[in-house]
Specification:
alpha+beta; five-stranded mixed β-sheet; four-stranded antiparallel β-sheet
């Protein structure tokens, strides 16, 4: 459960994750070094220096006790222990701070305060707010006294240098490592962009580069892309060749039927027309989504033109108002996309009485929707309906045309070639089939 929760907050990109893998150990090592140094070295050195200072303080306090009165304390201390370089002054009781005073980041000051409070009976408070000066308040037989001496005698000088060096070199090495990491990840990102573009039907130039493993993966991708392109080309050539060769006997049959009586030739001409329509569908399926290069297309205008053409062909098609707040052009294979939408419209009016077409354009998505009032497709058979040469006799009316089950398959292939998907559902507006082509911008 913890790791599932943690995954939601982890970076999703390879560069972010690699940077996190790189920075976490560096930050962890810096924290460990800082804590170990503060506890094992810096705190220990401060305690040792404070212990040595307490011996000197004992000598000073002994001289204070031997003074004739409070006014004689400074002179007596200077005369007998002046080499210790401590300034001792008698002070009033109300001038003693209620508690020790120091800045919030003074770690050695807190160590000093704890050490004196635990081992010095006459300790009252310490003032560490003065620059490089310790003002120590002690009780004595002559009343309260203030002892001043250099801060360097109880704590290490420049204790922050190790922290500064650790932070500086940590940031420097992280920067150097990030530059190297970026150079190593750049070939992976280029490979990802080339693979994503190929999945959307575009061919980006790509040359394997980077580490040995990345070069190996890049070379495998190039070989795979070339093999798939050859297979697509061979399929297209085969289907195109077969369909094209069959046009000649069909044309010859049409000419021979034109010499017969019209009543006798009408059924045979209908069969020839059906065969011609099937061949056209075979050719469209063979062309697939590879016809034309992606160009900037205004989707609203393209769909409006298709609906106008469908109306001129006698189809009952209605264009709904535009949806979404997106604007601008979309990179599409115009000829292939027009074929896909035209197939969806043809299916809608073939199996239903009328159809409605709508376009939703946002900043990230293009959705083209075609709805009809026909019998629709059961949910458990929608995946089967998008496969080639599939005819769902119980679900769709087969008496209105000579389809061979390629209309939805062509639309599916074209949508996938654009990096999108064809989704089939039930129309809430018309009660029939709802077909959506959804493409990321």
């Amino acid at each position: 459960m913890f790791f599932v929760w943690l995954k939601r907050y982890m970076p999703r990109g390879i560069y972010g994750r690699a940077a996190l893998i790189l920075m976490l150990p560096v930050v962890f090592v810096q924290l460990v070094v800082t804590v170990v140094f503060a506890q094992r070295h810096f705190e220990g050195v401060t305690q040792q220096m404070t212990t040595a200072m307490m011996r000197e303080l004992a000598m000073v306090m002994q001289v204070v006790e031997e003074a004739e009165d409070r006014r004689a304390v400074p002179a007596r201390v200077a005369a007998e222990v002046g080499l210790l370089d401590m300034d001792v002054q008698a002070v009033a009781r109300d001038s003693i701070p209620d508690q020790s005073q120091m800045v919030w980041y003074d770690y050695s000051g807190r160590v000093l305060d704890r050490k004196l409070r635990a081992e010095l009976p006459d300790y009252r408070a310490v003032d560490l707010t003065q620059d490089n000066q310790v003002l120590l308040y002690l009780g004595s037989g002559k009343g309260p006294v203030r002892v001043g001496f250099d801060r360097r005698r109880v704590s290490a000088s420049n204790p922050h240098q190790l922290f500064v060096y650790t932070l500086f070199f940590g940031v420097l090495m992280t920067f150097i490592a990030s530059v190297y990491l970026r150079n190593q990840l750049r070939p992976i990102r280029r490979l990802a962009r080339a693979a994503e573009a190929f999945g959307r039907g575009r061919h980006l130039p790509y040359t394997p580069a980077g580490a040995v493993e990345v070069r190996s993966a890049g070379a495998a991708f190039v070989d795979m892309r070339a093999r798939i392109e050859r297979q697509i080309e061979q399929r297209t050539l085969m289907l195109s060749g077969v369909s094209h060769d069959l046009r000649t006997p069909l044309t010859r049959m049409r000419l021979e039927l034109s010499m017969l009586d019209e009543d006798e030739a009408a059924p045979l001409l209908q069969d020839v027309d059906d065969m011609q329509r099937m061949l056209d569908e075979f050719l469209n399926f063979a062309k697939g989504a590879g016809e034309g290069a992606p160009v900037a297309v205004a989707p609203h205008k393209m769909i409006a033109d298709l609906v106008d053409e469908a109306r001129r062909a006698g189809r009952d098609v209605t264009l709904l108002p535009p949806e979404g707040d997106g604007s601008g052009m979309v990179m599409l294979r115009a000829v292939a996309m027009r074929r896909a939408v035209d197939n969806l419209i043809a299916n809608a009016v073939r199996y239903g009485a009328r159809a409605e077409v709508s376009v939703m354009l946002s900043d990230k998505t293009l959705r083209i929707r075609v709805e009809d009032d026909g019998p629709g497709i059961p949910e458990n058979r929608r995946a089967e309906a998008t496969r080639a040469f599939t005819r769902l006799d119980p679900a769709r009316n087969q008496d209105k045309g000579g389809g061979v089950g390629l209309g939805l398959a062509i639309a599916t292939d074209i949508a996938r070639a654009h990096g999108g998907v064809l989704r089939l559902g039930e129309s809430s507006r018309m009660g029939g089939l709802r077909a959506d082509i959804v493409i990321a911008r």
